[in-house]
Specification:
Number of strands: 9
Order of helices and strands: EHEHEHEHEHEEHEHHEHHHHHHH
Strand content: 5-15%
Oligomer: single chain
Distance between the termini: 29 Å
Helix content: 40-55%
Number of domains: 2
Structural class: alpha/beta
CATH superfamily of the largest domain: NAD(P)-binding Rossmann-like Domain
Number of helices: 15
Length: 308
């Protein structure tokens, strides 16, 4: 099965590497050819445009930073739908607006092209180790057709039902992660100001009912002296914006999500949209005048899980 991968950013490059490592005939494209250097050295092929890539593969996977970029890559004159043949499949792996996916999927269907949404969750470090979770929405038969590709990039995968469903659950998981991140920062600052040892406090929380995946990874990252999760403030705001929009659409009051969204708005204003998302904790550090650090604490995302 020939696979094309478009979007070799902090996340996409690891997902594409998993495909290459698992023996797929892989062609890649990105606005920055330098991002493909390692993949090309491993035997992947390069395409100069999304159209050229699509003309030479059976499945096109995109992992792109915004709905606007997805629409351009898919619908431009040199885009994917201009090159992908009848019977081909488009898989969208980033967190996206479900309405945009449905719009493009309808246009793809007119050309005999199937669509799967397959956003991933778990963080860049799990993508690097091939253990990230994949959430799938679309027709069951298309999912079965692409299952080997999906299993090559991640650990667990969950078929959520029709197109659009995976986007909803992905937004929910990210919303929870952002809320947990802000809460974990507040918890650790209480421990610090209460005179507790931060490493022991971290371990106590990890062994308690108050733990979370975010605490076990991103809290440890901050304590090690880093904020580099490979995920930016701009991306966080995009994703939590999807959540608050869904709240309005579905009539669900999302009070914690709204408060957390404003924390990231402040974080972007203070540190810039390209700042790593855990810097939202630095807002609290700056306000209190104290850094959350535990000397000798390992960076779990590099020391145990591979590159960020």
């Amino acid at each position: 099965m020939r696979v094309g991968y478009i979007g070799l950013g902090n996340l996409g490059v690891h997902l594409a590497t998993s495909l290459q490592r698992n023996g797929f005939d892989l062609t890649v494209n990105d606005i920055d050819k330098g991002a493909a250097k390692n993949l090309l050295s491993m035997g992947a092929k390069w395409a100069d445009s999304p159209k050229e890539l699509a003309e030479n593969v059976d499945i096109v996977i995109t992992c792109l930073p915004s709905p606007a970029v997805v629409k351009h890559v898919m619908l431009a004159d040199n885009g994917v739908l201009a090159g992908l043949k009848t019977g081909g499949v488009w898989m969208e792996m980033s967190t996206n607006d479900r309405h945009v996916i449905e719009e493009i999927a309808a246009l793809a269907a007119e050309k005999g092209i199937d669509t799967l949404e397959s956003p991933v969750t778990g963080g860049v470090h799990l993508a690097a180790s091939g253990k990230i979770t994949v959430l799938i929405g679309g027709e069951q038969k298309v999912y079965e057709k692409c299952k080997k590709v999906i299993e090559a990039v991640g650990g667990q995968n969950f078929y959520m039902g029709p197109l659009g469903n995976a986007s909803i659950i992905k937004v929910i998981t990210n919303m929870l992660a952002f809320i947990h991140l802000v809460a974990a920062g507040e918890a650790m600052m209480l421990a610090k100001q209460g005179g507790l040892d931060l490493k022991t406090s971290f371990e106590a929380i990890r062994a308690s009912s108050g733990t979370s995946f975010v605490h076990e990874t991103e809290t440890q990252l901050v304590l090690s002296g880093s904020y580099n999760i490979g995920f930016t403030m701009d991306l966080a705001l995009k994703d939590i914006g999807f959540a608050t929009e869904m709240g309005r659409t579905f009539g669900v009051p999302l009070e914690l999500a709204a408060i957390t969204e404003q924390a990231f708005v402040r974080g972007k204003a203070q540190y810039g949209g390209d700042a790593w998302s855990p810097k939202v904790i630095k807002l609290l550090e700056d306000a209190v005048g104290v850094e959350l650090r535990a000397p000798g604490f390992p960076d779990v995302l590099t020391d145990t899980e591979g590159p960020k």
